[in-house]
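Escalation from tier 1.

The customer reports that the assembly of two entities below gives different structure tokens on two consecutive runs. Tier 1 could not reproduce it. I'm attaching the input and our single run for tier 2 to review.
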Amino acid sequence: MIQLKNLERSYKTPAGQTWVLRRINLEIRDGEFITIMGPSGAGKSSLLNVLALLDDGWEGEYWFREEAIHAMKRKQRGEVAKRNVGMVFQSYHLLDDLTVQENIDLPLSYKDIPRKERQGLVADTLDRFQIVAKKDLYPSQLSGGQQQLVGIARAVIHKPPLLLADEPTGNLHSGQAREIMELFRDLNQHGTTIVQVTHSEVNAGYGSRTIQLRDGWMVGDTANPSFDQPTEVSAS
Amino acid sequence: MNSLLQDFRYAVRQIRKSPAFMAFAVITLALGIGANTAILSIVDASVLHPLPFPHASGIMTLYWTDSRPGGLTGLATVTDPGTVEWRKQNSLLQQIAFYRGHTANLTGVGDPVRLVGAEVSASLFPLLETTPLLGRTFLTEEETLARNHVVLLSHKLWQSRFAANPDAIGRSIRLDGQFFTVAGVMPPSFDFPSEAEFWTPLAVTADDSNATLKVLARLKPGVSLKQAQAETVVIARRLDEQHHRNPDSHVKTSLIPLETAIGADSRLPMFTLLGAVGLLLLIACANVANLLLARAASRSQEMAIRNALGATRWRIIRQLVTESALFTALGASLGLLLAYIGRGALVSATLAALPKNLASPGAAARIAAASIDHSVLMFTLIVSLFTGILFGLAPVLQGSGSRPNCALKAGTQNAIGSLGKGRLREILVVSEIALAFVLLSGAGLLLRSFVKLMAIHPGFEPRNVLSMNLELPESRYQTPAQMIAFEQQSLERLQAIPGVISAGSVFGLPLGDMLIRGDFVVESQPAPPPDASPAKILVGGDYFNAIGIPLLAGRTFNLHDSPTAPPVVVISQSLARRFWPNQDPIGRRLKLGFSHDPWCTVIGVVGDVRQFDLQDESALALYIPYAQAPIPFLMQSLALVVRYRSDDPSATASAARHAIAAVDPDLPLFDISSMEQLVYRSLSEPRFNTFLLGLFAALALLLAALGTYGVMSCVVTARTREIGVRIALGASQQDVLRQILARVMMLAAIGLSAGLLGSALVSRFLENQLYHVQPSDIGTYVVVSILMLFAALLAGYLPARRASKVDPMVALRYE
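Tier 1 run:
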């Protein structure tokens, strides 16, 4: 599904260039459930942003189903993301002024889908996630677990083949976290490719493959036990 | 004291920390305060306190109203013998005084000069509670022809012609060739009637043919205005009956306060401007309030920290009030400076619009000396301090509902799309847009009206035409024959000037100060209604060619139309059409409505002229040959009109001056101006009102746009994370741009709707300042709406563009 070749990301700071991703070579296949792990500052969220096509400032090659993302302009990348990617956030990021129903409808409202069809899709999703009774409530009237449920429903309503989740259970207690992870497993079993960032070994256990990052370098991949840990070569 | 100083230091630091915010707030306040102060000082001098006399509100005048359509309204006048009757028959007036305007040529003191003055009864000065600066005023016994050769000088005349020499008292001066003894000099502040330069005693004659005397009075103590008015009506009717005049039931003579009677026409335009600057101040206050609320939102955490660290509520309030007071004081100071700088231009513009606008006694002098009035200053200061302090306290007021720990936590929480907190700011923006719409639509209506006025053809050709005025003194020009001889000789000499094409004379120059209208009689037709009061204009020489009024039928006057020839008259096209529709008026007869009233034969028809001003559409005019003037009095005031070929009017004016001096060296020419200048000047009042209202409306639009920009900027800042999430969920740049602009357009639409309602209520006050434009003019409202929507779009575009550029990662970075 996705191929990253020698992908790098850095920021220019007054102190010089700061690297957040270094020579990432990664292949994500359809139907995988990948967990990205690593200490804080390892580059997990940065990698997720690159995968989500929210970040433009990287270098290297990014192939999405044979399409060369690296050759695309920002607008074209946005179109690819709109069609293929769903995002789940740690803090849910539901809009306070919108009801559950309206929040779920949000990604559809940015596509050219007739209103009737949108209403049908929203109703199906509410039903599928068993939150019909909550459809007219506002986010502030929901528990954290319910809010994340809505966040996931919103992320998958347009049936994206790729679901990206950044610490999806970070703000939830263990019971709620388990339910959310069960939901992810279910989505994955129905064909959605999932990439999650987490610190939790338990959550990682739901996935089929784990990637380790440290200081921007990819340092481990359970799908490739012979993964060579790269080292920085100094030119001295 | 130490903590106060600390507050002050901290306030100064706040100003230095956010100079753009402070500059914007200070300039906004300064514009509001400056405009209000400048306009209020002019309004105060011209309208609110129009009479510079002690106990001015007790001064009454006779006022005349004709309730029929087109009927005349104004200060009533009485005849000379009428003064005796009014003195005798009233029982409720403590004092009564009479006066009439009068001009005279002063000779023997430098170059001959024509002076404007008044004949006044001796009782005028005690009634106005005014004493002379030097000498004395008049004695009652000087109100006779034998003893009235005394004169009072204005302060200005005393300075300009007598070098402010106290020895001028007792000196003999020549007015219209007759000697008058200077009895006194009036103080500089005394200016009644307006612009008078000298006063002579009123010597009452037995002539009851002309009512030329205006009346002032004070009531006896304990007498109500109503009682005095009732008596006035009775006396007026009794006098009409005594003199066998036919009292008309539509005409009413009443007694009203002089303050009400004078400058009534100017009151509404002035109050319109006052309303406009009031709206501007409101917009400025709303803008500052908006800014402070925006700041309050960004400082709520600071307030919470202060609170958590032990600051009492009162201590925080004091800190905020110190900050507000500081920038309000800065704004007020800058506003005063602006008012001071703008005052000069405003005074000049007001004075240019004065002749037909603010003709109250001393108005010119007081407007010229208009200062930043204390009460005006206090008013604007209080309003701006109130705004500054009230909204400066917003952080405290806003924070009062929440606990400090909530505010502290809010800094780290993911609050997204909390529109509720910005609602007050949005309401303020809507109010600003509504107020700006009211101002802009008012200015738009005036502008449309002004454009129509400028497009009016005056009915004559003003290019290359010079006009100059002169007064023939009665003492040297006692008979019509003398005046006719002077007129003919003058015109011959003017005609002989190289480059002069034609020359004529006129009493009743278009757009000039002299004009009489009145009744007339058409042979074999019923009496014309009161709205058919033609202008009665004396003309001589080649007047019609000189000024460029086209002859449409028949002929104009020539030298054969002498005093002894059959009386003839030329009429305007409108008069011909109205009284002889589809008929040839040549050869028809009419009477001019004067006491000596023979039948006059119509010999010609000329084009219509805007006689009184450019808006004057009556267009009914009777032109009478100078040599056949029905009353000699009219022949004394002459305007000479010269059409010339050269491009140098000053050379022609100089040559004309010499030509007249050759006929009579003691006769000063005055008000020499081109007819183009007269046309330009006739629009000075609408130009003044349109310019000022337009200026205030433009400022209002600017402030409203800046207010909209400020609020939308705050909205975008507050919603950055929401926008980031939306982009992360698939929103394109266009989606975000559209969303923000839709919000702006919604605010603008609500503001415009409210503004439209406001305009519907307010614009009717403009009705009598509009020419051929309805207060509900749809075109103006459409244009103003488009302009405001465009301004709102522009104001919203920059924040919207910033929003569309939000990096979605910003929303995720706070995870």
